[in-house]
Amino acid sequence: MFGDDFLAQQRLLVITPHADDETYGCAGSMARVKSLGGEVYVVLATTGDLVHFGDGGDGRTTKLVTHETRLREFESVMRLLKVDDWDVLFDDSETHLALDVMPRKRLVSLLENEGRLSIERLRPTMVMIPAASYNQDHEALFHACVTATRPGVPSQRHVVPWVLAYDNTSLFWSFGHERFHPTCYIDVTEYLELKIQAMRLHASQVRPPIYHGSPESLELATRVRGREVSVEAAEGFALLRAVF
Fold this sequence. Notes:
This protein is of the alpha/beta class. The chain is built from eight helices and nine strands. Helices cover 36% and strands 23% of the residues.
């Protein structure tokens, strides 16, 4: 597990497909890095109007959630976690849930050097990216992030020393490729309550406790990750690169 001295030195960039994925995967780690004096930046890939399953009232099982609502919720979470800055790449409904049909070159360029919080501009010491899943935006962004963090000549482009893929409560439903297996952990015992508070601020996405992505289930999942390494609560990551 990463210790305080190490985390305090990090300039962390979190890249998230949708508003709330950053909370599922690494809100506790973000809070811990900030509390220790490190820097945290977040790039949200896409948000847009969407009709999805949920209590729509009057017996309806679907509801419309606008991109304005998702952005307000996301910004409230960024303030709660005290991140240094955040940016949104796309806020239109045509792009939302359609990153898989966007040329990867465009996504990579934004992540690598064209975006306001691009890797070249921030020069982060650590990048956390979404693990691949059945969601097309997650899958597309994962591959774009891998490309954007590829090795290169240090004098010509910034090579991120630490690249990690973060967890999601939906990853149990993964067929056709290997299940997510954490290879490193961050103890977030002291930040678990804050992580769950952040999840509740994504109010349009909150569902009943039985749902795998509910705040209650997220707390259970974070505690399970903790038990895997003998702490109360932890976030698990797949380590893609480590340069000492």
